[in-house]
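Minutes, project huddle
Topic: does the predicted pose make sense with S-adenosylmethionine bound?
PN asked that the exact inputs be recorded in the minutes so nobody has to dig through chat later. Recorded below.
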Amino acid sequence: MILEAWQWLTTPATPLARRSGLLKEAIAMQARCKRCEAAWQPHYQRCQQAIREAMAQSKRKRILMVMGAGLLQDIPLHQASEAFEQVWLVDMVFLRSARRLVRDLPNVRLIECDLTESLTGLFSGRTDIVSPQRFLDEPIDCVVSLNVLTQLPLTAIRPGLHRNLEEAELEKMGQALIQAHLEYLSKFDAVRCLICDRWVAEYDAQGQCIDELDPAWGVRLPAPDTTWLWQVIPRGESTQAPGHERTHKVGRSIW
Ligand SMILES: C[S@@+](CC[C@H](N)C(=O)[O-])C[C@H]1O[C@@H](n2cnc3c(N)ncnc32)[C@H](O)[C@@H]1O
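Predicted holo structure (tokens), as shared on screen:
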């Protein structure tokens, strides 16, 4: 706990990354990633393979951009750096471990920004969701949205942030954020690759499914061309619900 607080204080991060809770989540995710290494590695390998296939479909190789790069564990970094003239990794937060991973790769850039372009407004009381425009004019030949789509509403619609809004209005905002990200991806004149959760299920200690949910809030996503299961909370990890497990079905779509 003390180590995590120290990491929060000393990690270079924007005020929005701190205020939105994304820095705290990145630190928690790094710790969980270490604890759950055996359960998470197969997912990371599948993501890397999915990105390699998207990279191979790109005829020109000027810029590869990965949105939601985070800890960089699910990116085939060295191959990307060799294959493309430039690799742009975008996220709200990069921990020191991610900065170290790219230190010796001069054509790899870490770009800290809000992919929704709505967060500053949402955190100052506004409720409108804008259409992201950043990077659309850049010579990007392959763009990957990596395990970030279903996270976007979770950051923007935190309990207590929009107290005056009804449940139905919050749901609309969540859907609008997901829709705006999908439209944003589609606007790139590039190979577009979406990797994200398609379904989430929770199991009790007896292995019975006790909850299932659609992480895309009912928004229709492009059909996946490949899917795999990611045991995000393996048995023994949850302290709130001992013995419970949570599994995500992750899908990759290229268009
Ligand atoms: C599930 S994590 C995936 C991280 C990374 N691909 C990995 O597994 O190592 C989701 C990532 O999305 C980022 N993120 C969430 N909302 C964001 C936003 N509005 N703009 C940019 N990044 C965001 C988080 O900081 C986090 O790194």
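Observations noted during the meeting:
- The beta strands are 63-67, 86-91, 108-112, 140-146, 191-203, 209-213, 226-233, 245-254.
- The pocket of S-adenosylmethionine is lined by residues 22, 26, 68-74, 91-93, 114-116, 119, 146-148, 151-152, 155 (CB under 6 Å).
No decisions taken; revisit at the next huddle.
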